[in-house]
UniProtKB/TrEMBL annotation, chain A:
Organism (species): Acetobacter nitrogenifigens DSM 23921 = NBRC 105050
SMART domains xref list: AAA
Keyword Transport included in the entry's annotation: yes
Example GO BP: quaternary ammonium group transport
Name of this protein: Sulfate/thiosulfate import ATP-binding protein CysA
Keywords recorded for this protein, A-Z: ATP-binding, Nucleotide-binding, Transport
GO molecular function, one term: ATP binding
One Pfam family this sequence matches: ABC_tran
Domain ABC transporter positions: 3-238
Keyword presence, Ion transport: no
Superkingdom of origin: Bacteria
Automatic annotation (TrEMBL), chain B:
Pfam families referenced in this protein's UniProt entry, alphabetically: BPD_transp_1
Membrane topology recorded in Swiss-Prot or TrEMBL: Multi-pass membrane protein
Membrane spanning residue stretches: 20-39, 71-91, 103-125, 137-160, 247-271
The protein's name in its UniProt record: Sulfate ABC transporter permease subunit CysW
Gene3D superfamilies listed in its UniProt record: MetI-like
Function: Part of the ABC transporter complex CysAWTP (TC 3.A.1.6.1) involved in sulfate/thiosulfate import. Probably responsible for the translocation of the substrate across the membrane.
Protein location: Cell membrane
Organism: Acetobacter nitrogenifigens DSM 23921 = NBRC 105050
Gene Ontology annotations for the cellular component aspect, listed alphabetically: plasma membrane
UniProt-recorded Gene Ontology molecular function terms: ABC-type sulfate transporter activity
Main location: membrane
Coiled coil regions in record: none
Amino acid sequence: MSVLIENLTRQVAGGKVVLDNVSLHVPDGAFVALVGPSGAGKTTLLRAIAGLDPASSGHVEIDGRAMEGLPPRERNVGFVFQNYALFRHLTVARNISFGLDVRPRASRPSRAEIDAKVAELLTLIQLPDLGAAYPQRLSGGQRQRVALARALATGPRLLLLDEPFGALDPMVRRAVRTWLRDLHDQLGLTTILVTHDQEEALDVADRLVVMQDGRIVQDADGETLDATPATPFVMEFLGETLRFPGVVSNGLFVPADTHVAPFSTTAVDGSTEALIRPHEAVLRPDASGGTAKRVGRRGPLERLAVDLDTRTVEIERPVSAPPSGLVVLEIAQARLFQNGKPAVENARLPIDAVTTSSDAIPEPV
Amino acid sequence: MNALASSSPDSARRSPAEIALIAAAYAIVGLMLVLPPVLVFTEALRSGLGAALASITDPDALSAIKLTLEMTVAAVVINTSFGVLAGWLLAKYRFPGRGVLVALIEIPISVSPVVAGLVWLLLFGTQGWWGEALNRVGITIAFATPGILLATLFVTFPFVTRTLLPLMEQQGRDAEEAATLLGASFWRILWGVTLPEARWALLSGVLLTTARAMGEFGAVSVVSGHIPGLTETMPLHIETLYNGYQSVAAFSMAALLAIMATATVGMRSLFEARIRREEPRKAETAGGGA
């Protein structure tokens, strides 16, 4: 079931704009993650799709059908709440069958059919023996799966998940994540997931929609986001980032820091910022450079603190012999930004990534 | 007392102050709470059980019991319905003036029932604002059962809402939204999700309403007119009997009323215990989502 959102804006009482002219297309069968810091509008967008929060203006279409004026109960959208919102007074089985039990008699399946459906879903969520239990007895991971089974019972083709892994411990998280992705593929669902954890999103989703302050900042797959982040925020949100202020002058980026090597670029002259991942920065021996020393090690990687006179930055590299002398930092792989926008269009983009991302990157704002 | 005893690390060695405090607590409870009902029952049974029962089966007494039960049932039904709606509205929605409404709901707790009764008289009495007009179309409110019902409704108004509100606020709207998305209608959600999730608090509020409705004296006394066999509820009848020096009958009726009220409050304590047992689970669910 595809989802189309056009120019959706939501303004709450008091005038705050929580969704600002958001447009998004999720094709049938896609697994999309809405990511961003808290307050970015992710959950609001999800709730707007479900019809729980009305939009001030804009248009929502599910499976080609306009949703305006259609109450949430008629949208047949599977929704899993952050805290699962299971019905405490009902057993797991009755929780799961709730969506079928509340149907008018004419369209309600028979008791036997409902029971069969519940049994099927209990097997699917790998809790076949817990039908008679009450939610209080379940662990977080089990509740999460029951909430999912409940959302799936009415056979929605669209699944909306609000921070579904938020309350789970890390071990369970990974397992549930993998299981969820399998389920998505197996049932041919279209899934939109909200998370503030970018690693989780990269792990499970085909595409990430990065939100900030009620707007979509960038909408692309993980590789594209990493190669050509639309703003410094996207770059920093997706992982540890080193920032180097500087200027571009005559096709050369000149960093403000000492012991950082200038590099050539196609960017126009002006104040520029270079952002780079710690593992992309490289050390080069240089007699006039600074010192570098190992400060930590994890698995095959080590972290080195590089002294730039006025500050120290930490880079990451495969464990190797410690630098014998002074070094300078090579950051030619950095993404350059001028006034918060990419200074070089798709500069570092691999050829195959260009084709997949060309339609996903929104027009520059 | 158990709580006091168990909170002390070593019960064998209590300080004199502790002992004095505990003794004082027992003395106060004994004097204020245990002694009065014991006296009521002693007085009621002074001429034997037969006399007590005979006084209760007197026509005026039966009429008072009947009227009390009717008023209680009516007040409970009406105030539960509106209390649920009010609690739900105030807990689940934010709107201008909500704070004022929450405060207003508590007025009956703070205003003297006698004042409430007088207000009803002022409005509906024969000399009142609307009394004459209503009388002309054949509706009598003051010194009749409608007046008693109004008075009872007023004094028992806050209980259901006040017990439901904190629980419903804590539960939030998630379960209801989940039910909506699963296709449930408004009424289905109310009956199938909202009320069952709050059932123990609701029962507690209903029982509190019941106990208060049965025992209300002040407001009812003002509007009822004290007509034996017609507009006397049990508390009013007790007063009439007592003022007429029929102390066995008065105390028998009082004993009956005490039994009814104690039973209600006892049931309520049971439910309160259930609520408290469900509290940590709720906290756990809520905490899990944060």
